Each structure stands twice: as C-alpha cells, then as structure tokens.
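[Meeting: bench + compute handoff]

Bench side (C.D.) handed over the final construct sequence. Compute side (W.E.) agreed to return the predicted structure before the next meeting so the bench team could plan truncations. Sequence as handed over:
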Amino acid sequence: MTDKPIDDVSGVVTTGHEWDGIRELDTPMPRWWLWTYYACVIWAIGYWIAMPAWPLVSDYTRGVLGHSQRAQLSGEIAAVKAGQADLTARTAKASLAEIKADAELLEFALAGGRSAYAVNCSQCHGSGAAGSDGYPNLNDDDWIWGGTVEQIHATIQYGIRADHDDTRDNEMPAFGRDEMLDPQQVDAVSDYVMALSRDDGVADTLPGKALYTEHCVDCHGPGGAGNMELGAPKLRDGIWLYQGDKAMVVDMITNSRAGMMPAWVDRLDKVTLKQLAVYIHSLGGGA
C-alpha cells in the first residue's frame, strides 16, 4: 500500500506534490509507450554492436557489419567516373572546336562545366554568371580579354594578373594619383568617356577628347573601341565593370584598378578547364 494520497476526482495516486491546493497525479505511462521505449533501447544496443557508432581517440568502432557511408560514397563516385571514362578520355584529346561540334561531348562538357562553375566561379561571378562590381558579367557579349572559346579557355587557365608566367597582365595607369593629369583634366576626360557610351554625338565636341587621344587611345582605341589583346575595355557600349556614374569614372581615371582572377591551370584538370570554357562560352556571350 502507498501512503501517498489518492485524488478524489480521478482515483489516481498523487506524487505527494502540492501547489496552492493543486495535487500532481502520478499517472503511469501507457503500456504501448513503455514497450516502444524498451524496443528503442534494445534497437540502440543492437545498432552500437552492428554499425559504426562509438568515437575513439583517433578512429571509431567499425561495427560487426563493417558498413561505411564514406566507403559507399567513394564506390559510387568511382562507378560514375568509370562510366564517364570514355567521354573523359575523348574530351582530353579533343580540341575545343571538336568538343563543340560533337553533340555527345558538348553535352558532357556543358554538364561538367556547369558543376565546376558552381563550385569554383559562382562566388565571384554569381550563380547566374551576372557578375557584380569588379567581376565581369559572363552572359553578355562584352569581353575584356576576348570572348572566343579559345580565349576564354586561356583566361581561365592563366588568370588575370595572377601568379603565373602566362597570365593576362596589363594595368591602367593611375593618371590622377601619379599626377599625369590634374583634377580638371581628369574631369574633362571622364566627361568625354561618359559621352562615348551615350553615343549622342556630343563626345566629339568636348575638350576631353584631346586628352583622351593623348593618354588613352593607345589602349582603349579611337572612340573607345577597346583592345582585347591588351585587356582594355570597350568604353562606348554603356557596359561598366565598376559602374558608370561620373564619380566612379573619375575615380577610375584617378586611381586605376587592378582586379585579379586566379590561374586555374594548376588547380583543375585539363578536362574540367575545357568544360568550363565551353560552358561559359555557351552562356550567351562569346564569338
């Protein structure tokens, strides 16, 4: 018998706890819940024995079944690679033009390039390749270092101003900071450059044209046509790498920019590099 009081209403033994006249019932757990709990305990013990479960200092218990999800994943990856072996070998031997001309290799390259882009390139150029300030939009037809699939491939391999002997490297002078132009001259050149992108015929009437011809035309070309061999952007199309408002153009001419893209030739295998070039060329730009 229990010396704990029994609730008058429910007839259930109480725990003996009472708050403000309210007694706590000592209602037993349902049988089904208890059996479920016991079954879970038994299952847990069996799992500890059968499966990897206990961490050790430098390893873990393997379990009598020896199951390993890591080993399973490695096997699945190996199976996928084996299935792709023929396409991978053909891609490695084929030129970029041959890959684009072969429907099977092109499909393989686009799939692989899309995956490689998401892992290695989207952090700067965006998941949709639309770019941002200082990171080119890869969807349009405006290319600083050339938009053919071969030129894109070279840019990916060797980077821009990267730590590689074959990197694409050219740097715009800081005309204002290095006192090649005074602030009034910088302002005049910026007005001319902005007028070029509007294509309203006003540019030829501005005093900045003479300064542009003297200091800028060798790289950016007459009328702002640009020069892909030098990595000098086109200035007359209204597409800007670092925005196109007056303050930014003045700052560019005054201080210059020297954005850097890493060289991927020592980071990615040659098949992945080809796939990336083909994929990026397919985004809508290029030539």
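W.E. noted at the follow-up: The first strand starts at residue 14 and ends at 19. C.D. will use this when planning the next construct.
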